[in-house]
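EF-hand domain-containing protein
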Amino acid sequence: MSNLNNSTNCIALQQEDEKKNKKKQSPVDDRPQVPAPSEAMLKNLRTAFGLLDRDSDGHVTPSELQFMLRNLGIEVSDELIADLIKDASKTGNGLIDENDFMQWVTKIQALQGLDVTTSGGDSEEEITRDLLAAFKVFDRDDNGYITRDELRSALEMIGEPVTDAQLNQVLALGDIDHDGRIDYEEFVKMLL
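Predicted structure tokens:
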């Protein structure tokens, strides 16, 4: 009888240990894993963060995000901006630091099925797409040309106020056919 009791006690102790071990294990995380971004992607994200962080204080505020989106022609409600900031901010303080921003954008890209582990812009197709997107930021009226006023507006939008002399220099470099504006081909030649 004592052997039976010992066996029963052993089984009970094993079952109790198994329950304790299960409690100690962390719960399974069903969220999709976000791969680490490439160095080129990190560099691009740091540049983007720097453009958003207009006062260079290391944080993006809702008003800075709203300002950039409006200047890109994207109208978003203040409520949605607050939700985006809340989603991106790990501290919940209504600000996004550089690390929060990089994790947030990487997560969004991964959810969209974009491969963040690749170079982030080395293929010819990606370069062409990025150049066209950059051109469209400057070409506010979408007529295929960047005018002096559009150039000034775009540079001021990203926190780079320019003098007339500086505008003249940029136009002189980019305006190959001397028509007073920069078309897409001229824009590409100027950047590459």
